[in-house]
Amino acid sequence: ALPVYLAVHQDAPYIDAQAALSRGDAAFFREAQNLQALKNQERERLFAETIRHKRTDIARLVAPTLNNLNGAPESPNAFLAAYTANAEILEMLIDRGADLSYREPLTGAGLIHQIVSGAGKPADQLSCLSLLKKRKMLDVNAVADFGTTPLMIAAERGSALVHPLHELGD
């Protein structure tokens, strides 16, 4: 029983942080010792979870503690923010110099493809696209490996973004 206790006890800071994230307890993350108790890899994993849960308030508290803001090579944070259509976190990542060049290995889809095909609400997707347009980073004609553009994806899915996406490209 002792080795099990030690294993659980050793992971306790991360388990506590996950529980605080699930509760939406931003105060937990404002206390420096709670973040300092986590290994760097755990903070990186926690940051990705803040993106998935759209907890920008907590993401802003965790981000300054990260050595690697880009995230895991196979699932970069900017790609995750685009998929969830989280413009606030996407803007924070852009401001902090995150790598936005990742392309999905199977299809070659880039950041804009992720925004229009992701799990976000149309209004949130539009916010992400507007942010990229404002930053002069929006290419509505970006082509994935199979010749697919973001506009084609939006039209195929019957998305409300077809018209605004076309206008943003002008």
Gist of the model:
This protein is mostly helical. It has helices at residues 2-23, 26-30, 32-36, 40-52, 56-62, 77-83, 87-95, 111-117, 122-134, 150-156, 162-168, and strands at 71-72, 75-76.
Compile the SSE list and pairings.
Blueprint: H1 2-23, H2 26-30, H3 32-36, H4 40-52, H5 56-62, E1 71-72, E2 75-76, H6 77-83, H7 87-95, H8 111-117, H9 122-134, H10 150-156, H11 162-168
Keyword list:
170 residues; mainly alpha; two-stranded antiparallel ribbon; 2% strand; elongated
What does this structure look like?
With 170 residues, the protein is mostly helical. Helices cover 60% and strands 2% of the residues. It is built from eleven helices and two strands, in the order H-H-H-H-H-E-E-H-H-H-H-H-H. It has a two-stranded antiparallel ribbon. Strand 1 (71-72) and strand 2 form a beta hairpin. Helix 6 (77-83) runs parallel beside helix 8 and helix 7 runs parallel beside helix 9.
